[in-house]
Amino acid sequence: MTMKPTTRGLILLAVVLAALPLALPNAYYYDVAIRIAINACVAIGLNLLIGYTGQISLGHAGFFGIGAYASAILTAHYGWPPGLALLAGGTATGALAFAVARPILKLKGHYLAMATLGLGIILSIVIVNETAITGGPDGMSVDAFSVLGLPIAGDGAWYCAVAVLLILVTKTALNLIDSPAGRALQAIHGSEIAARVAGVDTTAFKVRIFVLSAVLASVMGSLTAHYVGFLTPGVAGFFHSIELVTMVVLGGMASVFGSILGAAVLTMLPQLLSALEGWETVVFGLILMLTMIFLPRGIVPTLRLKLAKREN
Amino acid sequence: MLKVNRLSKTFGGVKAVQDVSFAVRAGTIHAVIGPNGAGKTTLFNLITGVYTPSDGEIVFDGAAAAGTSPDQLARRGMSRTFQNLQVCMNMSAIENVMVGAHLQLDTGLLAGMLRLPRLGNADRACRAEAQRLMEFVGVGKYRDTHASQMPYGALKRLEIARALAARPKLLLLDEPAAGLNHTETGEIEALIRKVADSGVTVVLVEHDMKLVMNLSDHILVLDYGRKLAEGTAAEVRANPDVVAAYLGASA
Q: Is B6 helix (H, G, I), strand (E, B) or coil?
């Protein structure tokens, strides 16, 4: 029996993640790898919404921010255990996403983009202005993460945790895509009316995937807050939302592995471009434009198509 | 099976369908014909819940159906194809057919993410059934093909396979032979006959008169949104109003 391409991809991912520590020379590279894994998880969730279901969101950093600040505030001000704070943040995000999803997801195309953009900006403004609890533009420090009282500290522990998480998220997303629910989501993208005639309650499915991707962003936000140890409102900002969408588009719409690659490229890029000081944003925009013009399918789907052509 | 009573639909000032009544008996093939713009597709969209009627009632399988959403009607056993193809071009051929089986599977997000063994088995059975349906409609060789790479004629059949995957009681075909050549039209005719023989009630909109006359047990003729005539193929053909509508009043 031949192995499915997705299984091969998953094994490759596991091997790379397992072998990477041997190649990472110092803490700086560990840090980059951990950030890549965290971004990749968010991008995979966002790709389920954008790439597979065909619904744009320009406000996902807002959900990421809710998770991050919920964890920071609940642990620092109220002494909650980090695990519980993470769950609370995820639940709050899920509830908010559920509440706004129905009216928002009735919109299509540019209007949906505007509505999600507005939502993200509102969340960002709240975080900046509520200085008493969020620290405002000055930011706030966050305690270390711990599971059942055992702290996760140090690059090695964090790397293992996020690597395992990335494999789990990847596997779960691949499962979903190859399931009846996943086909319903893709059918909504392909032809909404055809999906409805086949019995798909399209509104319910759009709401569910929106909530799922928002909660995933929130959980990764919580982990990021604890990992970095210091939060500024930028994590919930517009630029972060655009960054996440760019990861999805560059790596490839409707490609789980594309999201990982997109996250890797766009997380490393600012490090490489740090000499440009402030011009990174311009380079990001340029990458998004060039991808749209020359690689509209994104990196991974384009490569897959090239390989398939060669095999024939 | 299906009863339409004094159905009307207006778009602004345009009366697309006016006061149309007819009934479809279970196990028959029913055709709706009429010149371009007669309101055939609008009638289809009203029956399948894409549009909400301005007036009148629709009874499907013993229960009111006017204004019910397409996914609710699918639950009650109604399926359809489209005049302008609605195949999901972002999926493979067989996945398109499997979407048709949506209501027979566990479509929970969590079940899908965890890929429980029960779901895996049901999904494999669904794939096998989809393959069987693709062979039934004559597109079996496209199993692993991406929908975007299939020829037009095959896509039309693929839509029928997807509709059948829902195991409908009533199947509405909107111009199944449109854009097909002579040979392909003959094949589609045989396919529709096969579908009807398998126990599915068929309603079709079609311009190809040979196909309509060969297949239909009952024909409804629309003109300017109104019912012009109704009856068997022979009755409709002999009706002077129908001849006038198709060939011009002087004929």
A: strand
